[in-house]
Design a protein that fits this description.
346 residues; mainly alpha; two-stranded antiparallel ribbon; 65% helix; disordered N terminus; disulfide bond
Length: 346
C-alpha cells in the first residue's frame, strides 16, 4: 500500500544554488508531526499568558517570588510568540530558511535571547527557593525582593550579550547558498554561548538542588522523637520507731516531645523542594541534548542528521511549556486564582 503524499508548499527561490521551484512533499506522518508542533506553540503561548494575566490581576502576586515567575513567563511567552512560529515555518520548508538574511538575524537573536533568559529564570527561581529554605531568618521579604530584582536584571543582561554578539561580527548566522539559518558556528562563540546559556546555569541548579537535598535530609534526621523518662524513685517514710517501715514507689510519667508531625512551614518547604527538583529535572532533560550537540558539532567539525537537530531544538522549546505547568501545579494560590478567573468570566 503506497503512502499518500501531499505537495503542501511551493516557492520560487532565486539567488541560491538551488534555483527554480522549491517544494516539499509531506507524508501523513509529517503533517501529523507539524500539527502537533503547532499545537505545542499555541499551548505554550496561552499557558504562559494565563500565568502573566493571573499575576497582573491578583494583587497578592505583586511581590516576590512571583516577579521571578513573571520574568520566566515573559521569556517563555516570547519563545512561543516570536521564536517557535518562525522555527515552524523553517520546518515546513524542509529546514531551509526562505525569509532572508535580516529576518534570520532577528530570529536567531530572539531565539538565543528568550531561551537563555528562560534557562536563567529557572536558575533564579531555584536560587530563591534555596535561600528561602536554608536562610529563612535572614532572607527577609525586603532582602528577597532586592536580590530577585538583581537576578532578573542580570538574567536579561547576560541573555542580551549572548544573543547580540553575532550581530557585531562574531560568526555568521545566515548562508544564502544553502538557505541555512542557524546559531553562529564560530568555535569561540560556541563555547561562550553554550557555557553562558546552559552549562553555567546547569552547574548552579545542580549545586542548589544538592544543597536543598542535604538540608532536607538533615531536618529529617533531626526530627526524631525526643523522650525523657525519669527512673522510678523509692521514697522511704518513717512514721515511728516501733511501726514497720513503709516504702512508697513513685513512678514519674514519661515526658515525650513529639516532632513527627510536619509544621505548616515544613510542608511548604517540602513542596518547594519537590517543585525545584522537578523543574530542574525537566529543564535538564529538555535542553541537554541540544546543547551537547551545539557544543560538540562545531568543535569536532562533525555533523548529525538534520532531523535530529530539529528533534533536539523542539525538545528544548518544550521546556517553555513545562515551566509554568510545573510551577503552578505545586502552588495552591495559582490553582485558586485560575478558578476564580474563569468563574468570573462565566
Amino acid at each position: 500500500m503506497t503512502q499518500p503524499n501531499f505537495t503542501v508548499l511551493s516557492a520560487n527561490i532565486s539567488g541560491g544554488s538551488e534555483s527554480g521551484n522549491l517544494y516539499r512533499p509531506f507524508s501523513v506522518f509529517s503533517v501529523l508531526t507539524l500539527t502537533l508542533l503547532a499545537m505545542l506553540v499555541v499551548a505554550t503561548f496561552l499557558w504562559n499568558l494565563l500565568v502573566l494575566v493571573t499575576i497582573l490581576r491578583v494583587r497578592t502576586f505583586h511581590r516576590v517570588p512571583h516577579n521571578l515567575v513573571a520574568s520566566m513567563a515573559i521569556s517563555d511567552v516570547m519563545v512561543a510568540g516570536l521564536v517557535m512560529p518562525l522555527s515552524l515555518v523553517r520546518e515546513l520548508y524542509g529546514r531551509r530558511w526562505i525569509l532572508g538574511r535580516a529576518l534570520c538575524q532577528v530570529w536567531i537573536s530572539c531565539d538565543v535571547l528568550c531561551c537563555t533568559a528562560s534557562i536563567w529564570n529557572v536558575t533564579a527561581i531555584a536560587l530563591d527557593r534555596y535561600w528561602s529554605i536554608t536562610r529563612h531568618l535572614e532572607y527577609t521579604l525586603k532582602t528577597r525582593k532586592r536580590i530577585s530584582n538583581v537576578m532578573i536584571g542580570l538574567t536579561w543582561l547576560l541573555s542580551s550579550v549572548i544573543s547580540l554578539s553575532p550581530l557585531f561580527g562574531w560568526g555568521e548566522t545566515y548562508s544564502e547558498d544553502s538557505l541555512a539559518c542557524q546559531v553562529s558556528q564560530e568555535p569561540s562563540y560556541t563555547v561562550f554561548s553554550t557555557f553562558g546559556a546552559f552549562y553555567l546555569p546547569l552547574c548552579v541548579v545542580l549545586f542548589v538542588y544538592w544543597k536543598i537535598y542535604k538540608a532536607a535530609k538533615f531536618r529529617i534526621g533531626s526530627r526524631k522523637t525526643n523522650t525523657i523518662t525519669p527512673m522510678a524513685e523509692v521514697i522511704e517514710v518513717k512514721e515511728a520507731e516501733r511501726q514497720p517501715q513503709m516504702a512508697f514507689t513513685v513512678r514519674h510519667a514519661t515526658v515525650s516531645f513529639q516532632t513527627d508531625g510536619e509544621t505548616w512551614r515544613e510542608q511548604k518547604e517540602r513542596r518547594a523542594a519537590l517543585m525545584v527538583g522537578i523543574l530542574i529535572g525537566v529543564f535538564v532533560l529538555c535542553w541537554i541534548p541540544f546543547f551537547l550537540a551545539e557544543l560538540i558539532i562545531p568543535l569536532c567539525s562533525c555533523d548529525i542528521p538534520p532531523v535530529w537537530k530539529s528533534v533536539f531544538l523542539w525538545l528544548g522549546y518544550s521546556n517553555s511549556f513545562f515551566n509554568p505547568l510545573i510551577y503552578t501545579a505545586f502552588n495552591k494560590n495559582y490553582n485558586n486564582a485560575f478558578r476564580n478567573l474563569f468563574s468570573r468570566q462565566r
